[in-house]
Amino acid sequence: MALTRRQFLTLMGGSAGAAVLFQACGLPEKELLIDSPAAMPEDLVSGIDNWYATASQQGGVSEGIVVRVMEGRAKKVEGNPDYPLNLGGHSALSEASLQGLYHPDRISAPLVRTGPRGSGEYREISWEDAVARLSTQLSDLKNSNEGNKAVFVSNPVGGHAGLVLDRFVGATGARHMAYEAVENNVLRNALKEVFGTDSIPEFDIDNSDFILSFGADFLSSWVSPTRYARGYGEFRQGHEHRGKLIHVDSRFSMTAANADQWIHVNPGTEGLLAMSIMQVLSATHSDPIYEQLDSDGILDTYSPANVADVVGVSPDVITKIAEDFSHSEHPIALGGGSAGAHTNGTQNLKAIYSLNRVVSNLGKKGGVLLNPEPPIDGVSAAKATSTFSEFHRLSEEMKAGNVSVLMVRDADIYYGMTDTADMKSALDSVPLIVSFGGMMDDTTSIADLILPQHHFLEDWGTDVPVAGPGYEMVGFQQPVVRPFFEHRGGNLGTKGFADILMTTAQVMGEDLGLSADTFKEVIRNDARKLYELNRGQVVSGSFEGFWNGVLQRGGWWDTGSKVTKEPAIKRLDGVDRAEFGGSNQEFYLQPFISTLGDGVGASLPWLQAMPDAISTATWQTWVEINHKVAEEKGISEGDVLEIRPSNGRVIRALAMPNPAVPPDIIGIPIGQGHRDGGRYSAGRGSNVLSVLDPQVDSDTGSLAWAATRANITMTGEWIRVPKFENTVPEFPRDEHHHIIEITSGDGH
Amino acid sequence: MIPGDFQPQKPTGTQLAKLGVLGVVLLGVFIGIVLVLTFVISSWLGRPVIFGHDGPDQPIEFPHETHVKELGMDCTFCHRNVEKEAAASVPAAGLCMTCHSAVGDELEGITKMRNLYEDGRSIHWVRVHRVPDHVHFVHEAHIRYFSEKEGIEAQEVCATCHGDVASMDKVQQNRSLKMGDCVNCHKQNNAPTDCATCHY
Amino acid sequence: MVTADSNKWGMVVDVDRCTGCQGCVVACQSENNIPINLEEHFNQRRAIQWIRIERYWEGEYPDVKARFIPVMCQHCGNAPCEPVCPVYATYHNNEGMNVQVYNRCIGTRFCANGCPYHVRFFNFWEPEWPESLKNQLNPDVTVRSRGIMEKCSFCVQRIQRSTRESERDNEVLEDGDRGLNPACVNACATNALTFGNFNDPDSKVSKMKEEAMKEGGRGYRLMENLGTDTNVVYLKKVDESVEVTHGH
Lengths: 748, 200, 248
Known about the structure:
The structure holds three protein chains of three kinds.
Chain A lengths: L4 H6 E2 L16 H4 L16 E8 L6 E8 L2 E7 L12 H10 L9 E3 L8 E3 L2 H17 L6 E5 L4 H14 L2 E4 L6 H11 L6 E2 L6 E5 L10 H13 L6 E6 L4 H5 L2 E4 L5 H15 L3 H6 L10 H8 L3 H13 L3 E5 L9 H14 L9 E2 L18 H12 L5 E5 L3 H4 L6 H6 L3 E4 L13 E2 L10 E3 L8 E6 L19 H12 L10 H15 L9 H11 L1 E4 L28 E7 L11 H4 L13 E5 H7 L5 E7 L5 E8 L6 E6 L37 E11 L23 E2 L5
Parallel strand pairs in A: 1-2, 7-8, 7-15, 10-11, 10-13, 11-12, 15-16, 16-17, 21-25, 22-24
Antiparallel strand pairs in A: 2-3, 3-4, 5-6, 5-17, 9-14, 18-19, 19-20, 21-26, 22-25, 23-24, 23-26
Helix pairs in contact in A: 4-17, 5-17, 6-13, 9-11, 9-12, 9-13, 11-12
Chain B lengths: L12 H33 L18 H7 L4 H4 L14 H8 L7 H11 L20 H12 L3 H4 L1 H4 L16 H10 L12
Helix pairs in contact in B: 4-5
Chain C lengths: L8 E6 L8 H9 L7 H5 L8 E9 L2 E9 L18 E3 L5 E3 L9 H5 L6 E2 L26 E2 L5 H13 L14 H5 L5 E5 L6 H10 L5 E2 L11 E4 L1 E2 L10
């Protein structure tokens, strides 16, 4: 959708510190500065709204957004219609960032702990004091050659914030580990093997006509759901022929619900199915590619007849899928989510992505498009995170006293690690925990020192996405409002994350080699490099014009910069059988991401109150169970169940029977069960991540989060499930009440 | 005289006094009710006719007369949003400072304003014209309509609703600004009277 | 082109594009100052969602389908909610919209009973936000107090603002303008929702409607047999595995 001139005018750059701008009035600078929003008298209300473009990278998902700002307050988020990654749509998480910005439980000044850990007793200190405390500790370690006793655990950070962080840990000698509760190392590892690329390629769902997806819940939570959903809309109704989606999954996910066909497979057998499909194709097509792929001749062991029982899909169906896949003009195979969360995860995903090589869709319309290297040297997308195994080792090192200072930023290791890794008690043995959290999360609330960072809507940054659009791009994140706690003065309030690091390094006397004093300058200096490339969608005769242009449009991209080189084809490896923790347990425990991401959204009431697509449940932790199995066991909706894996841990969740759950599966949403995180999340529901078995993917050491088996027991308690279903009476579905009508044809 | 018949008696002095007190009290109550009703009804119909004849006191005395009549400033110089947006807007102290950084040293209000400005705070003016939350009045559209219709400058339109602000000692409300007032004017000018024009 | 005296606002909802992601629901709550739906509000069945996603089950494992359909006020041309209101707080305006006038509403809830689509919601409580979250509230939308009925307004505040601004700037308000579109339409990643003027034959919604209502087209209206003459046109879900062409 093109921008009209009127809209374009209102998408304004924030070059004046993102204060509400008076256009062409020639007034003194001071009038531009609106009061702190909290203290503004009502008569200053002007009714003017401006839309500022910025980039949201919450929960590891990049989206370009425009934020409506009135009288210095952010009112509404919408998708940036130009941004290559979402082209106008936006996710509920982006929308709810407004509630993060104005959250009543934000931290408004640096804090130092006064009570015992976890007591929540803190005292406010000045920024000067806070930075001094951190820098002294880091300097001491560095001077005694023990720099590596400082560990920096962050979320996966790319772009310029990643650059500053890299330089900071480099200068202080600290170790850096990136953390995500639901890591995508298995995916990135498999993609590297199959496509030889570090980034996640673009899947041109828009122009595809056949998508074969294995476990990747790409319409709801996988990698870049808003972008895939946009493509999905066109895939269905944007072209002459309606695309067909087959979703292979052990659980009935939102993507399965939207698929033309949901193929239920036994957990961990997705790779076997993919191999079997390739076997069918290699037997019926004579293509030299199979000789390259299968030089060892292993494919024949995966014939449909051989794997059908293990996978749980009849040989006919496998053959049919294989034929449909190869006969399509623009097929794509996707894999991820639970398919990669088994002990054979990498093998599964390698087999799945190899299907793309079989149909040679690389670099083609409606196929897989590899991403070029980022345009600015040294400024890369977020690197792969450290794996579960590495964090498990970290917890042992903590206990052994090898970690003196732990710095955490947006990485809730207290919450996200399984209890078996013993991170919670390991954190007790770290003498100093420093958090940069702008709000209490479970790890921040045991920190000794808190240096609260700005909310991203108050801060600068760049977005170099891991899952790029298939061409070079750098998104620009600019402050759209003045810091909410500005009124607390320069010595209190919050500060930008990268700026905190730069100040700390400066106090320590370390040179980060950034040749700038503020983070904004770092970004601006590198924007000059983009300007000098003299290509991309922002054209201007001067750097000043270019800078305003990229801020107005939300970034810089060059649709012409595509990858044409095709990586060599690698030989197929075999796919082993998945192993599970416990064997006598009745159910496979399948955690899934619902509305709260991997837990980042739990503090935001809009996301808590947003109904889960399948169950419409909200605010609680529920467990999906097959309705017939539930009936046999006498379980009805709202019964409090205890989930017991073989590792002895227990969580409680509310039963939510539905007709689509396979009988041997129980599904539990990730994201609740926080000890802290503000009034909307603390003490609410339970955390399924905490009870998982420490099974890991054999190739990467990543957590195999779908490889736990569990029993359930009834507690006899009952709690009403807060859900949207039945809030309004359901429409009767008969010949008189046409509600959802189905047609078998496209109407063409 | 028939025994037992009603005998008219002269009221005693105390009785008369009691009656008198009762009469005064009743009269007082009656006057009170009339006063209250006059106030309530007139407030309902428009601005109060008994109290609040003057506008409210402002934190800093701002003589419109000096600025508009004597210096000849346009309304739109300070209320600079009036031709663009919903709210006319009251300027931040920064605008005052364009002149008052140099003039008005002797005035108490100016010192007060300069102090606020230097502290980066705002002047909390007392609002005079207010419509309820569920009414969305847009200055811009009204100014645009009247200045086109009458062929006059934007600032000459203001008086239609606000009266002769330039001559007011303290700014006060000039029209009732009740819905009837709005609708009458809308009808006279063939403006839309759809509820959703103002209420949403 | 949109002109003030000839508008008939309406929406086309392509059910085949909808994935049930609930993005529209949250966008609507943000735009329209809808009170936070707390856990107890859900438990009392008093949560407010001007637009909602209905989910229907068909069959059971392993042959199971979940169907999603977004439902908002249908802005009926012949609305059952209107005649039952004793105080004319809800009426049909000349731009094709069913308008709810908050200051007239006295909370009889007759309209909610009358609405076959169940899209009207009652404020059982005074809406509350923590002080800091009030900074997010949209000043263009009235916060409804306790005892007031509310429902989807097609984001009338956006229509008012964008038409006025285009008149002010002497510009043409184009079909599909993102300032004009309701919040849900802009949020929808799959473009399942399209908003526009049915009186403008060149608008996208008019063209979609014309195409959809042809013989064999996918168009239908919710509970058309009630004769409500809605301003929201739905396009049928496509499922090749199903033989019927009508709801069942």
